[in-house]
């Protein structure tokens, strides 16, 4: 086990959304976070991020937990559900109230704004600040937004353990962002920050699709006076069209009740190889985990030696 730092303080987590059963893409994130906690002698928590109630699938949360256990990944302590922690998000929003304002803009209006009209549209277009000085007459509030500082004063710098030195200017890249959505749900950015702090999470290991979210979360941590976790974003699995593997892009569940040796061959070994772990064909689940821990340490050492990159 790694012992260069105070490993007793390491707390990591895996935080799946119960929109379906685990697939190879989500298994990669679970495996990386689990291995990182174990090689540091740390605690590995599981949190069900079920705030998006319209997309939740009945029973998916318990199916996810069962799959983790069948793969040999046992969490520490009790599993938590975000839907049971709404008072925490409400309290955080109250703390942020001076920086929040109501917004009446629809997604189409934001896309059609002059700021975004001639740009290649991303999943989250830059908010143009339409409602910063108040909503237009007759408009109804759709969301709560958080003000970010003007350009050149809103750059967030951080170091990712996989990607190196990164930065993002929130004003240029995102603009004022949503804290409570039009459907009334608390936004992911707020909930994850509040939950990580409440649970003492100080090491976040997750997919690189969330790299763009990290600066917003660090900014929220600054405003709320919360500690900043260490971040590590692993590559994401994609389908043949280059899209992130997910239920929406046709990802299939890997755990269909097959025997452990089938689960090992069809799920765990492919996930490990995707992460760059040098593991020869393991004879059993126990054999896999014996080989996976030192293999993950080797991967960490390679990234620690690699030149850092700038975003």
UniProtKB/TrEMBL annotation:
Required cofactor(s): Zn(2+)
Pfam families named in the record: tRNA-synt_1c
NCBIfam families reported in the protein's UniProt record: PRK05710.1-2, PRK05710.1-3, queuosine_YadB
Record GO terms (molecular function): ligase activity
Origin: domain of life: Bacteria
Keywords, ordered alphabetically: Aminoacyl-tRNA synthetase, ATP-binding, Ligase, Metal-binding, Nucleotide-binding, Protein biosynthesis, Zinc
Purpose: Catalyzes the tRNA-independent activation of glutamate in presence of ATP and the subsequent transfer of glutamate onto a tRNA(Asp). Glutamate is transferred on the 2-amino-5-(4,5-dihydroxy-2-cyclopenten-1-yl) moiety of the queuosine in the wobble position of the QUC anticodon.
Keyword Chaperone recorded: no
Span(s) of short sequence motif 'HIGH' region: 16-26
Entries under PANTHER family matching the protein: GLUTAMATE--TRNA LIGASE, GLUTAMYL-Q TRNA(ASP) SYNTHETASE
EC number annotated for this UniProt entry: 6.1.1.-
Descriptive protein name: Glutamyl-Q tRNA(Asp) synthetase
Motif 'KMSKS' region per record, residues: 244-248
Every Glutamyl/glutaminyl-tRNA synthetase class Ib catalytic domain range: 13-281
Cofactor binding mode and count: Binds 1 zinc ion per subunit.
Residues reported to bind L-glutamate: 13-17, 49, 188, 206
Record carries keyword Protein biosynthesis: yes
Family: Belongs to the class-I aminoacyl-tRNA synthetase family. GluQ subfamily.
Binding site for ATP: 247
């Amino acid at each position: 086990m790694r012992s260069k730092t105070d490993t007793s303080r390491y707390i990591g987590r895996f935080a799946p959304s119960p929109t379906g059963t685990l697939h190879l893409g989500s298994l990669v994130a679970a495996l990386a976070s689990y291995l990182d906690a174990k090689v540091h002698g740390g605690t590995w928590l599981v949190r069900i991020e079920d705030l998006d109630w319209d997309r939740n699938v009945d029973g998916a949360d318990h199916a996810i937990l069962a799959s983790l256990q069948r793969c040999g990944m046992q969490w520490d302590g009790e599993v938590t559900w975000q839907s049971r922690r709404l008072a925490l998000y409400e309290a955080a929003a109250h703390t942020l109230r001076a920086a929040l304002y109501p917004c009446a803009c629809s997604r189409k209006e934001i896309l059609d704004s002059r700021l975004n009209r001639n740009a290649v549209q991303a999943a989250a277009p830059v908010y143009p600040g339409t409602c910063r000085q108040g909503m237009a007459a007759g408009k109804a509030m759709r969301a709560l937004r958080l003000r970010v500082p003007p350009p050149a004063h809103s750059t967030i710098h951080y170091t990712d353990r996989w990607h190196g030195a990164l930065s993002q200017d929130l004003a240029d890249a995102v603009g004022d962002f949503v804290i409570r959505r039009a459907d009334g749900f608390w936004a992911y950015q707020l909930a994850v920050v509040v939950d990580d702090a409440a649970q003492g999470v100080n090491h976040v290991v997750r997919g690189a699709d969330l790299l763009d979210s990290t600066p917003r979360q660090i900014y929220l941590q600054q405003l709320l006076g919360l500690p900043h976790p260490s971040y590590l974003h692993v590559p994401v699995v994609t389908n043949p069209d280059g899209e992130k593997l997910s239920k929406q892009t046709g990802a299939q569940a890997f755990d269909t009740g097959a025997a452990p040796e089938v689960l090992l061959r069809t799920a765990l070994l492919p996930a490990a190889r995707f992460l760059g772990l040098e593991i020869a064909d393991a004879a059993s689940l126990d054999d896999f985990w014996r080989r996976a821990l030192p293999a993950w340490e080797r991967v960490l050492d390679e990234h620690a030696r690699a030149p850092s990159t700038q975003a």
